[in-house]
Amino acid sequence: MYVLRMRDAQYVRRGETIVAPATFDVAPGARVARVCATAGEAQALAMMAAALVKPTSGIVLIGEYDPRVQPVHCKRIAAFVPHDPLPFTEMSVEHFIGYRAALWDIDTERAHAHAQLLLDRLAGLHESFAYPIVASLLASPPLLVLDRPQPLFAKQILAAAGPCAIFSTHLDASAATEFSALREEVRV
Amino acid sequence: MTGRALAAIVTSRLHGERRTTAFACVTAAIVGFIQPHGVTAVADPLTADVATRSVWLAGPIFFCTAIGIALALAQGPGRHPYLDIGERSAPLFGRELARAKAIAPTLTATVAALFYWFAQFLSGFAAPPTFFILALASVLASTLVALNATLRSGGRRLLYVLLAFVTSAIAYVLAVYADSAASRAGDVLGVATELVFCAIVGFIALRQYGEALARSDVVSS
């Protein structure tokens, strides 16, 4: 069983092909990095993998669930981390963690303890990048989807992700390779 | 959807828009306080009834509708990206998310309408509770229609904003004229006509918002 499967999954917007037909699998605990030609392709592919965007054609299965039919099940399996940093000027981290815990129906105390553990592992990352990763991992999802993550912090991100599978999109091969090399290190 | 998740979405949205809410309530109170309430003296009771309704309902319906539309448009993506991405990636169906997201602007619009009514009361021209209910129904229906504009762009966005204003205009005409036309037989029929119209429009708009939210394109690049 795979946590993510794509078969000729394509995303077209107003006649323009954003994501060309993509076919790949992500096994539990595996780390798959994919190099994309444009930022739009990277974002759309990551969002398709996290059930935030439905493919125009082809098949996407997240943990054997089809996001077009069972988006809620898919979102319990795949957690998405956006590329852009999120400004946290309006909400404290305690409030933000409580907010995310409520959305995923996680015990608040447990969520805060888990968040602290993850923040320790993500030491060095700016809070605008760290908090979205922490929030995504609060529910201990089987799959973490990263949209163009910062290669500089790959080691911390992988350490925080732990045993969950990771699918990431990148704009250049060096970033993807760096992630892959580190992944092998982590696996060893 | 759990009550906890619903409360989290509503309170976070209200917290994010607290300054807008305060501004809406203050302006509603000011306009409610200074709104002219005078009606030309007429002998015919039916004409006087229409004149009173048209003057006393115009302010709360049209001004509070404008507030409701502005509050609905403030719920659009981009103003609070951490809330947008949190709600988007949460394990919720589009219709559940739509209901939760619709509560915040409708609640704020209701509070603004209450401020307007209270200001009218303070100025010595308190409208009867029925007027408040008629105005509130129009405001809520228009706010729900305007929420659909947040998921569109360009001409379609403008169209939904116009539809929201048209909704309030129709509700106003029904509240003023259907009520007075029915007053020979009883006011209940006239009030019910406006309320039923607003309920139908609001229901359709909320369903449409849920559908649009589930299908909306969130790829920004």
Task: Bin the strand percentage of chain B.
Answer: under 5%
Could you spell the SSE succession of chain B in H and E letters? HHHHHHHH
What share of the residues of chain B lie within helices? over 70%
List the uncertain runs of chain A: 183-188
Q: How many DSSP E strands of chain B?
A: 0
Structural classification of chain A: alpha/beta
Topology readout:
The complex is a heterodimer of chains A (188) and B (221).
Chain A: E1 4-13, E2 16-26, E3 31-35, H1 39-49, E4 57-62, H2 71-77, E5 78-81, H3 93-103, H4 108-121, H5 127-137, E6 143-147, H6 154-161, E7 165-170, H7 173-187
Parallel strand pairs in A: 3-7, 5-6, 6-7
Antiparallel strand pairs in A: 1-2, 1-4
Helix pairs in contact in A: 3-4, 6-7
Chain B: H1 3-16, H2 18-34, H3 45-73, H4 81-89, H5 94-122, H6 129-147, H7 154-182, H8 187-215
Helix pairs in contact in B: 1-5, 2-3, 2-5, 3-5, 3-6, 3-7, 5-6, 5-8, 6-7, 6-8, 7-8
Describe the structure in your own words:
The complex is a heterodimer of chains A (188) and B (221). Chain A is α/β, with parallel strands linked by helices and 188 residues long. Chain A has a four-stranded parallel sheet, with helices on both faces. In chain A, strands 2-1-4 form a three-stranded antiparallel sheet, with helices on one face. In chain A, helix 6 crosses helix 7. The radius of gyration of chain A is 16 Å and the shape is globular. The C terminus of chain A is likely disordered. Chain B has 221 residues and is mostly helical. Chain B has one domain. Chain B contains eight helices and no strands. In chain B, helix 3 runs parallel beside helix 6. Chains A and B meet through helix 1, helix 2, helix 3 and helix 5 of A and helix 1 and helix 4 of B.
Provide a brief overview of the structure.
The complex is a heterodimer of chains A (188) and B (221). Chain A has 188 residues and is α/β, with parallel strands linked by helices. Chain A contains seven helices and seven strands; from the N terminus they run βββαβαβαααβαβα.
